[in-house]
């Protein structure tokens, strides 16, 4: 049964939400989620690239030859990544420095290439945009959630917006910050446990 | 930094899979069987050394020279994709045995962010040509080491009774966290 545009959009938010349901693009998920702000920033950058590449791939789908389609997709994606890099250097330089190598690496993020190949190359422009935005927003939410959990457990507080922050110590005065969570091994274990939780809830 | 420190840093301290989180897709995807893990590790070592040095040369002698540094991302991915294609054709014609071994893993390397990541890191850290060569080789060896260790553990996990929600990726991630923890102990060495 063909889905409506709204369904294509909302499937990215839960049914196929990366990286939990669609285990792809784990590098930025593990690498940048030391805080909620970094996670959301990375998510928004990826969403922009997904939106742009899905739009352009879908628009050009009758022109792109079947045999060299992957190369074409990669060039389109790389162009949007370059746009994001330049925009972030101009308007969000501190965040750009924090995310570092992961911004150019959006090019090789399997989610972006996967959506171009599996969806945008076969569907209408409006549907592809809905798909790209849905998956992108789902990805941003996942990164934000993982970042928030790690920051909260690791530092004992989480920065919500600007100077606003929530301090766990105000609710549980005896809580000891667990710095393991914001370091490398904590990323794997925290994501593994969240995946387990989502599987358990899903059943 | 001397070469010895660089080598230790690349293999253990800044291990590409467990400390820098690059190349997670093949890490999770090809580690279910020892054979595939070994194949992937070999293919990465082979391609990464070539990609690391070629992108360094292109960046230094073409992009910087002509003031085109902003094209870095596009240039690198094109170089890596065509390099992989070229290596594949070359091996098919001249060393069929090696081609049969690496076969399906070669095309996958184009979207392996460990390759692209190391190329970008070599530039960001302002390594010289020789340092880039050494770093690329030993990052790749670190990748292989972690992947093969992980594959060995995952083969063991297959025999264990894992609770249903934890199965597959979830338990794999937690195991990876444990290995990462042991690599974390190298932190003070360099």
Number of strands of chain B: 0
Distance, first to last CA of chain A: 24 Å
Radius of gyration of chain A: 18 Å
Q: Which series of helices and strands of chain B comes N to C?
A: HHHHHHHHH
Number of helices of chain B: 9
Structural class of chain B: mainly alpha
Work out the number of β strands of chain A: 2
| Helix segment tally of chain A | 9
Shape verdict of chain B: globular
Helix percent band of chain A = 55-70%
Weakly predicted, low-confidence segments of chain B: none
Helix content of chain B: over 70%
Mean pLDDT of chain A, to the nearest integer, reads: 88
Beta-strand share of residues of chain B: under 5%
Describe the main β-sheet of chain A briefly: 2 strands, antiparallel
Broad structural category of chain A: mainly alpha
Q: Determine the N-to-C terminus distance of chain B.
A: 10 Å
What number of structural domains do the residues of chain A give? 1
Give, in order, the helices and strands of chain A: HHHHHHHEEHH
So what's the overall shape of chain A? globular
Fraction in beta strands of chain A: under 5%
Explained architecture:
The complex is a heterodimer of chains A (203) and B (190). With 203 residues, chain A is mainly alpha-helical. Chain A has one domain. Chain A has nine helices and two strands, in the order H-H-H-H-H-H-H-E-E-H-H. Chain A has a two-stranded antiparallel sheet. In chain A, helix 3 packs parallel to helix 6 (110-120), helix 3 runs antiparallel to helix 7 (125-155) and helix 4 (69-91) crosses helix 6 (110-120). The longest helix of chain A has 31 residues, at 125-155. The radius of gyration of chain A is 18 Å and the shape is globular. In chain B, 74% of the residues lie in helices and 0% in strands. Chain B has a domain at 36-149. Chain B has helices spanning 3-13, 24-29, 34-63, 72-94, 96-102, 105-109, 113-124, 129-159, 169-184. With 190 residues, chain B is mostly helical. Chains A and B meet through helix 2, helix 4 and helix 9 of A and helix 2, helix 4, helix 7 and helix 9 of B.
């Amino acid at each position: 049964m063909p889905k409506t545009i709204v369904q294509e959009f909302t499937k990215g938010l839960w049914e196929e939400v990366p990286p939990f349901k669609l285990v792809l693009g784990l590098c930025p998920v593990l690498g940048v989620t030391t805080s909620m702000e970094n996670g959301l920033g990375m998510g928004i950058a990826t969403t922009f690239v997904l939106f742009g590449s899905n739009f352009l791939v879908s628009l050009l789908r009758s022109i792109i030859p079947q045999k060299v389609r992957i190369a074409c997709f990669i060039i389109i994606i790389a162009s949007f990544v370059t746009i994001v890099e330049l925009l972030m250097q101009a308007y969000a330089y501190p965040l750009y420095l924090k995310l570092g190598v992961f911004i150019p690496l959006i090019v090789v993020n399997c989610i972006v290439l996967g959506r171009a190949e599996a969806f945008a190359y076969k569907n209408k422009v409006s549907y592809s945009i809905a798909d790209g935005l849905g998956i992108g927003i789902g990805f941003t939410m996942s990164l934000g959630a993982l970042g928030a959990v790690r920051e909260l457990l690791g530092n004992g507080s989480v920065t919500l917006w600007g100077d606003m922050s929530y301090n766990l110590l105000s609710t549980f005065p005896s809580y000891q910050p667990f710095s393991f969570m914001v370091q490398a091994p904590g990323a794997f274990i925290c994501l593994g446990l969240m995946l387990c939780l989502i599987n358990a809830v899903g059943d | 930094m001397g070469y010895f420190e660089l080598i230790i840093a690349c293999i253990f301290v800044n291990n590409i899979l467990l400390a820098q989180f690059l190349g997670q897709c093949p890490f999770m995807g090809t580690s279910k069987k020892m054979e595939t893990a070994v194949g992937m590790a070999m293919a990465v070592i082979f391609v990464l050394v070539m990609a690391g040095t070629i992108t360094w040369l292109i960046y230094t002698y073409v992009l910087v020279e002509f003031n085109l540094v902003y094209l870095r991302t596009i240039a690198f991915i094109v170089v890596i994709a065509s390099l992989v294609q070229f290596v594949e054709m070359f091996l098919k014609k001249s060393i069929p045995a090696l081609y049969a071994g690496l076969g399906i893993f070669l095309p996958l390397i184009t979207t392996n962010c460990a390759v692209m990541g190391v190329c970008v890191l070599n530039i960001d850290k302002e390594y010289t040509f020789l340092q880039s060569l050494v770093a690329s080789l030993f990052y790749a060896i670190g990748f292989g080491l972690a992947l093969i260790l992980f594959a060995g553990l995952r083969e063991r996990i297959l025999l264990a009774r894992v609770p249903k929600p934890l199965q597959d990726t979830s338990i794999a991630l937690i195991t990876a966290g444990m290995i990462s923890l042991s690599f974390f102990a190298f932190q003070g060495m360099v």
